[in-house]
């Protein structure tokens, strides 16, 4: 195990422990040594960048079973550029014309329950290409005939999102969605940024599959666009157009290749066992503690990953789930929990981004905050709305 550097200390940054997941706002992931090595090896060298992109295409094709692949700046960039590619094809005049889409098919259909965000709204990612968003169904119910009805002569692509952030019921399954689109020759672009399965979604009918390189793969910041060669080529050609402002450097391209290779070699069972060890330790430490209830739940989109749910009973614990989450984040060391549903009185602990020795610290911190709250016996009374407002105020004060 490499020793940890003190870079955070040097920069005056807090030594946060991440039990929230692969989050952009926390630095995305612990980059695997193979990707770090590849990136530092290429940094001082010249490379012919489109040849490097050719090598990456082959690596992505091997890992995903796709015809071709293209490395983008991020999955979000991949979504915008794949939509642009579906609009322009390999026509460079059109590539240069965007985001003015006149004369092109410019509509993208998407189920309303998939219109999620990842720090920015996915519908803006579509509009950024010059396309128009055409929602299908309502938030909790989308049907095949509604999808058919929304497809027209103007449809450039269909976007399908697999994520815990989407509505998890009432949506069309990918294979049925893709069948309808294929019958109308509409390419299906699937946003799979956080999904571990690199092959199954293409096999289920997606024409283009988009992944984050910096999430479960542990690469440098990048996106992976894999799929039909004509569509991936058209996505790549956006480098001469709107993609220029989203360019990816040589370091991220070689790191993506290295991260894919490392993923193919990784002992996934051993990783799972280590994560299970963290969960078991937490379950043991939280058993019988008044005011909380711990359970283990599977990942909602069937990634091979479980998380711990910690429900907080504020009457007994004398603290709400959100005040506990904030106390953990404010303490020493700061522990950042998975809190996007915290208004329902629980948060989660994600075991997959921990350094050795951190899992017991997480348990210590939680038990210490609970003990402090019990002794204080003075719940703050702060509402979720006040908590959210405070976050936005802080954001708007940046860089102060
Ligand atoms: C994280 C995420 C994104 C954004 O990925 P980046 O590579 O960080 O741009 C897009 N879609 C989903 C579903 C995500 O989880």
Overview of this structure, please?
Helices cover 42% and strands 15% of the residues. The strands form three sheets. It has a seven-stranded mixed beta sheet with strand order 2-8-7-6-5-3-4, sandwiched between helices. The chain is globular and about 70 Å long. The protein folds into two domains: 7-25 and 268-396, Aspartate Aminotransferase, domain 1 (Alpha-Beta Complex), CATH 3.90.1150.180; 31-265, 3-Layer(aba) Sandwich (Aspartate Aminotransferase, domain 2), CATH 3.40.640.10. The two termini are 37 Å apart. The protein is α/β, with parallel strands linked by helices and 400 residues long. Pyridoxal-5'-phosphate binds next to α4.
Domains, number: 2
CATH arch. level architecture of the largest domain: 3-Layer(aba) Sandwich
First-to-last CA distance: 37 Å
**Mean pLDDT, nearest integer?**
97
The ordered string of helix (H) and strand (E) elements is: HEHHEHHEHEHEHEHEEHHHEEHHEEHH
Q: How many β strands by DSSP?
A: 12
Which term fits the overall shape? globular
Give a short synopsis of this structure.
This protein has 400 residues and is α/β, with parallel strands linked by helices. The protein has two domains: 7-25 and 268-396, Alpha-Beta Complex (Aspartate Aminotransferase, domain 1), CATH 3.90.1150.180; 31-265, Aspartate Aminotransferase, domain 2 (3-Layer(aba) Sandwich).
